[in-house]
Amino acid sequence: INAADAALLLKSASAIGSGGASGLTDAQKTAADVDGDGTCNAVDAALILQYAAYVGTGGTQTIEEFLNRT
């Protein structure tokens, strides 16, 4: 999980917002919905970016562990 994943999700959210298709597979949508609210959007992208920064500074928790503490 890294900043490129967040960028892909933002691109997808933009496409959906303008009436297009997300461009994500079902598996990608499931993985991208990191806050578990049933939608993939900028909130998920922001959480992914936060996690990427955490890992980039030496963090070792999984994203699930990280999100449970935020």
Structural descriptors:
70 residues, 4 helices, elongated, mainly alpha
Compact summary:
By secondary structure, the protein is an all-alpha fold. It has helices at 3-17, 26-32, 42-56, 63-69.
Structure characterization notes:
This protein has helices at about 5-15, 25-30, 40-55, 65-70. The protein has about 70 residues and is mainly alpha-helical. The longest helix is centred in the first third of the chain and has 15 residues, at about 5-15. The protein is elongated, with a radius of gyration of 12 Å. The mean pLDDT is about 95. The protein contains four helices and no strands.
Q: What fraction strand?
A: under 5%
Count of strand segments: 0
Compute the CA-based radius of gyration: 12 Å
Mean pLDDT: 93
Specify the structural class: mainly alpha
**Main beta sheet: strand number and arrangement?**
none
* Individual helix count: 4
The percent range for helix content is 55-70%
Form type = elongated
| Unreliable sequence segments | none
Distance, first to last CA: 17 Å
Sketch the topology as an H/E string, one letter per element.
Answer: HHHH
Question: Topology, pairings included?
Answer:
Blueprint: H1 3-17, H2 26-32, H3 42-56, H4 63-69
Helix pairs in contact: 1-3
